[in-house]
Specification:
alpha+beta, four-stranded mixed sheet, 11 helices, globular, 19 strands, single chain, eight-stranded antiparallel sheet, 21% strand
Length: 405
Amino acid sequence: MKIHEVFENPLSGLLAAERYVNDGSPSGFSSASELSLQHRPLEGSETIQIPVFYVPWERVVSFGRIEAIRDRVGTCPQDCIPVPVHPGALESVLQDRALGGISPAATFDAAPTASGRTVLAVGDKPFFVKLHFPGRIGRFNRAMPLYKWIGAKESAHYLREFLRGGLRSFSHLDEVGGVFAESERGPGFGTVYRDLPERTVSAGAALLPAFSLFSRDHRNAADPSLLAQILERWRMDADSFIEVFVAPLVHSYVQLAVEAGLIPECNAQNVLFRVLMHSEKVEIYFRDMEDLWKDLTVRESLGLESSCVPYHTIRQSEGSDYFERRSFLFDFKFGEYLVVPLIEEAARFLRIRSSDLVSATRRIVRDAWSVSPGYFPYGTDWFRYPRERDVSRSHYERTSHARFR
C-alpha cells in the first residue's frame, strides 16, 4: 500500500488497511476464526449483505442515535426498530427465536473490517456496526449478551464525559447508539453503532489502524511498511519518531488511567493514528468501548460515576486482580502488542538498534507515571497471559523486567 494513495482517498485507504495490511495479533490466534471465508477481512468479499430484521419496539432496548440504520433500509415501519444481524449469526438467531420467529426484512451493504464481526456500512455517511457473533474469532467467543452491551454503553458515556471536560491529547470513535434484542430462548444479543466522523477521513489525512503501520500489505508484499513511508516522507529521525508517535500514546494512556479511571485495551486494533499529511502531525484515536476498562477505585476517589455492570471493571480489594490487571493492560497489551512492533519497525527503517528506542520510550513512560507512583506496586514485575486459547483473569503469568518501566 502506498501512503500517497491513502492521503488521496482516505476512506478506501482505511478499509484496505483494515483488511489487507494486518499481520495478526502476537497471541498467534488471529487465524483461528469461526467466520466463514466470505465474511473474513482478508479472504472475504469486498462487500457483504447484512440481514436486517424489523422488530417491534416492545422487544428491543435501544440507546442513542439509531436513525442511520433506518436510513440504510428505508422501509422499516415506524412501530419497529431495524435490528442488523451478522450473516454468520443468522442461523443461531433464528434457532433461538431471538427475534420472535420473524424473518429478515431487508439488507444493507457493508465491508468487513479487521475484527471480522465489526463491519463498515458503506455508501453515503458510512459508519461502523459492531455485531453479535456467537462463535470464536481469535481466542474468544464474540457474542454480545446484555452485560457486554450495557458495559460498552457505559464506557462510551464515561469517555465522552471525560473528553468534554477540557483539552485532551487524544480522541475516539464514539459509540453513538445501539440496540439489544430480547430472546424467547437464549440470552438475546446486542448491536452497537460506531461513528466515523467525516473529518477523520477527509482528503490529506490518513486514518490508519495501528497494526497497519508495521504490518505487510498482503496484496502488495513488496511495498515498504506505511510507517517506513511516513518516516521517509517526513524525514524523521529517532527523536522525532518518539515525539510524534510514541509519546502521545503514552500520555493519552496515563491521562485516561489517572484522571478518568478508564483504561483502554490498547492492542494494535483498538488504536488508530490519524496522520496529517501537510502538518506532519499525528492524532491518536481509541475505538471499541467494550474493551475499555473501568477502574472503580480511581473513579470513586475522583468523585466520578462508578455504578455500572461488573464487566471489564477492576476495584482494589483483598483477593482481587486489581494490580495484575493494571500491569496486564499496560505492560502486556499496550507495551508488547502495540509499542514494541511500532518501535521495531521504526528501528528497521532508521537502521538503528531497537533498544535505543526502547530506552527513549522507557524515559517517557517513567516520567508520565510519576504522577501516580504507586500505580504498579510490583516494581518492574509484570503480568501477561500464556499463549493458550482459553485464558481468563485467573491465568496471569508473572514475569520480571517490564520492558518500559
